[in-house]
Amino acid sequence: MTSITIELPDDVAQRASSLGLFTPDKIRAWLEFETRRIAGKTLVASLTQIRNLPGEAMSDGEVAEPLARG
């Protein structure tokens, strides 16, 4: 288990606390959501870079053939 300490402006901390956002479940859910969101953005950026590479895209058959041969 990991513990974290954060520094927030008092008004932000008070609002978050009054909304019940400092529970372990809420923080875990938020971190999991952000982790997935950032991973998705990274994947989209990578796919965009691949699509923009010069040359023609390989067909499904051209990709599958070498994979099938091992």
Biggest sheet architecture: none
Radius of gyration: 22 Å
Average predicted local confidence, pLDDT = 92
Beta-strand portion reads under 5%
Number of helices: 3
Query: What are the segments in which pLDDT stays under 50 over at least 5 consecutive residues?
Result: none
Find the count of extended strands (DSSP E, 2+ residues).
Answer: 0
Helix content: 55-70%
Roughly how many Å apart are the termini? 42 Å
Shape: elongated
Judged by helices, strands and strand pairing, the structural class is mainly alpha
Q: Element order, helices and strands?
A: HHH
Describe, in plain words, how this protein is organized in 3D.
- There is one protein chain.
- With 70 residues, the chain is an all-alpha fold.
- Helices cover 67% and strands 0% of the residues.
- It has three helices and no strands.
- It is elongated.
- The mean pLDDT is 92.
